[in-house]
Design brief:
A seven-stranded parallel sheet has the order 3-4-5-6-7-8-9, covered by helices on one side. It has a two-stranded antiparallel ribbon with strand order 1-2. By secondary structure, it is of the alpha/beta class. It is 38% helix and 13% strand. Strand 4, helix 2 and strand 5 form a beta-alpha-beta unit. This is Aldo/keto reductase. It comes from Dyadobacter sandarakinus. Pfam families: Aldo_ket_red. Keywords: Oxidoreductase.
């Protein structure tokens, strides 16, 4: 593993749409278990508006967040959207209750999901649509068929995947170009290390979900000492480590607090040394 040498804080999705690498994930602007609407909708809208005001140009959501309520909230808070704002959404899951996420790769479900997201987000075209999961009940060629239709119709500009390995990425790429991968990855859980390197080599965005996990308890003292040196929080160090890990990593930390939002965004100004990065990576 090596740290990036290019310290740029922007990335071009699909080589075309330039965004700031520190974005915002909308999942937390929902009820308990990502079920139902945000408990305080006005405060939730304020967080979204403040994120854009502070320079966020990449917001990640999904039709399953709520379900549906998160996309509606984003449209209410931000539409008409700034020209430099990319809203990415996802489809391919159902919701049967709080913290329940059955996978559904039925092409009919995918087609409905795309249409629903367009309507709720008040968009004519989705800049980045991502498939939540491969569904073993349906060949990926069938699952992605409606996505290809939407791309050809101009309803989707770019396509991404989530929780996939290299073989799955390459299989999907035979059907439609893939520009991003969203897998679980953070300082404490690096199962998908090879996917970070693979996507960097392919100029695909890598979007770690659950990015704020800072590692096992044995690392607490090490992280704390580095955080103190930079006058930062441990969460900010976890985000700064991801930014240094690879130039294709985009961050989507979520929060329902304006104060925490600004804390997360400030991670972009933390420049970890090679020594800091190596010490954290050893954990």
């Amino acid at each position: 593993m090596s740290a990036q040498t290019d310290n740029t804080l922007t990335f071009r999705i699909g080589g075309e749409i330039e965004i700031n690498r520190v974005g915002y994930g909308g999942m937390q602007l929902t009820g308990h278990g990502v079920w139902g609407d945000a408990p305080d909708r006005e405060k939730a809208k304020q967080v979204l508006q403040e994120a854009v005001k502070a320079g966020v140009t990449f917001i990640d959501t999904a039709d399953s967040y709520g379900p549906h309520t998160n996309e509606v909230l984003i449209a209410e808070a931000l539409h008409p959207y700034p020209g430099n704002l990319l809203i990415a959404t996802k489809g391919g899951l159902e919701r049967t209750g709080p913290n329940q996420w059955p996978v559904n790769g039925d092409p009919n479900h995918i087609r409905e999901a795309i249409g629903g997201s367009l309507k709720r987000l008040k968009l004519e075209s989705i800049d980045l649509w991502q498939l939540h999961r491969f569904d073993p009940k349906f060949p990926i060629e069938e699952t992605l068929a409606p996505v290809v239709e939407a791309v050809n119709a101009g309803k989707i500009k770019h396509v991404g995947l989530s929780e996939v390995d290299i073989a799955q990425i390459e299989r999907a790429e035979k059907i439609v170009p893939i520009v991003s991968v969203q897998n679980l990855y953070n300082l404490g859980d690096r199962k998908w290390e090879e996917i970070v390197d693979y996507t960097e080599g392919r100029n695909m965005a890598f979007i770690p979900w659950f990015p704020l996990a800072s590692g096992p308890a044995k690392m607490e003292a090490k992280i704390r000492s580095i955080a103190e040196k930079h006058g930062a929080t441990t969460a900010q160090i976890a985000l700064a480590w991801l930014l240094k890990r690879s130039p294709n990593i985009l961050l989507i930390p979520g929060t329902s607090s304006v104060e925490h939002l600004h804390e997360n965004l400030a991670a972009a100004s933390i420049n970890l040394s090679e020594e800091d990065f190596a010490a954290l990576s050893e954990g």
